[in-house]
Amino acid sequence: MKIVVLLSCIALLGVSCSTPEEEIIATYPNMVKNGSFEDLSVAGGLWSMEGSGEMQIQEGEAYAGWRALKVNPAECTELMYNEDLLVEADATYEISLATRLAGESTGCSAAFYLYLVQDGENVLAANIQPENAWEWKREVLYLFTTSSSPVEFRIITGNTNIELDEVTFRRVATL
Questions:
Q1: Cα 138 to chain centroid, rounded
Q2: To bridge 97 with a disulfide, which of 62, 129, 152, 167 should be the other Cys (CB 3.0-4.6 Å)?
Q3: How many helices (DSSP H) and strands (DSSP E) are in the chain?
Q4: What are the tens digits of pLDDT across the range 114-130?
Q5: Which residue, among 33, 23, 18, has the nearest Cα to 169 in the 3D structure?
Q6: Which 3-state string (H, E, C) describes 45-78?
Q7: pTM of the full structure
């Protein structure tokens, strides 16, 4: 979150002073626990998969750090973050993640379809297409909430060998 603070003095007795604009940077915390997949003690149970295939934490092939989540579905599969993301109404949130889509299609229409659900409705959706199978791709999306109901984070994937790392969901300032 960036907050711009203007510092100025009030003119007193015909003397005035002012200081230049100063930026104070503060960051809201990431609401996705262990979005870097580095902490193995909390890795299990935070993510689940509906559909057939495998999901595991892999080492050495991460976007940042040492670990990433690897999903290898056999068919169209839904990947879910298992904790609700608590939001405030009338606020803007940023979701950011790094993906590498290295495999072949399983026949599903979505290679990597990210969506957020609030009050039973899709409030954000993005179909992320593979560009270069060997390169990580960073996505940043924004959501403006009108409700304070929790948000669910889900991904539908139909490509084999999906890698996911550095998942963040945080509030950003609205000036």
A1: 10
A2: 167
A3: 0, 12
A4: 999 999 999 999 988 76
A5: 33
A6: CCEEEECCEEEEEEECCCCCCCEEEEEEECCCEE
A7: 0.79
